[in-house]
Write a structure and sequence with these properties.
- With 117 residues, the chain is an all-alpha fold.
- The chain is built from 4 helices and no strands.
- It has a single domain, classed as Up-down Bundle (de novo design (two linked rop proteins)), CATH 1.20.1440.
- The chain is 74% helix and 0% strand.
- Helix 2 packs antiparallel against helix 3 and helix 3 runs antiparallel to helix 4.
Length: 117
C-alpha cells in the first residue's frame, strides 16, 4: 500500500461522503446544526480515520483507526434511520454502506493477520 488513497475502502468512503452531502442538502434548514451536521461529521469521519490510521507506521494503530471508521459507519447508519423515521429521508439504499462495512472488516482481518506474522 502506497497511501490511503490507494485503498478502495477509502475511495468508496469518499463517494459516500459526497452522497451524504447531496442527500442532506434537502433536510430542513433548522436541522443544519443538528442532524444534518451530525450526519455529515460521521460520514467525513469514515475516510478521515482510514487516512489517519494508514499514515501511522504501525499496523496496530491502523487497525484501531479502522475500528473508529467502523464505529462512525454504524453511527451514520443510525442517524440515517432516524432521518427516515422522522420523514427527512425516504427509502435510503444502504448498499454502499454495507459494502464499506465488509471492506473495513476485511481490511481489519488482513491487518490483524499481518500483526501475527
Amino acid at each position: 500500500m502506497k497511501t490511503h488513497k490507494d485503498l478502495d475502502v477509502w475511495k468508496n468512503s469518499i463517494d459516500l461522503v459526497k452522497d451524504i452531502y447531496l442527500i442532506t442538502k434537502s433536510f430542513p434548514n433548522d436541522e443544519l446544526y443538528g442532524l444534518t451536521s451530525q450526519i455529515r461529521r460521521c460520514a467525513v469521519s469514515i475516510p478521515s480515520n482510514i487516512a489517519e490510521g494508514s499514515a501511522r507506521n504501525h499496523n496496530k494503530e491502523f487497525v484501531q483507526f479502522l475500528y473508529v471508521s467502523l464505529g462512525s459507519l454504524a453511527e451514520l447508519e443510525t442517524q440515517l434511520i432516524i432521518a427516515e423515521q422522522i420523514g427527512y429521508l425516504k427509502n435510503y439504499d444502504y448498499t454502499t454502506m454495507n459494502k464499506i462495512k465488509k471492506m473495513l472488516l476485511g481490511l481489519i482481518k488482513y491487518m490483524k493477520s499481518k500483526n501475527h506474522e
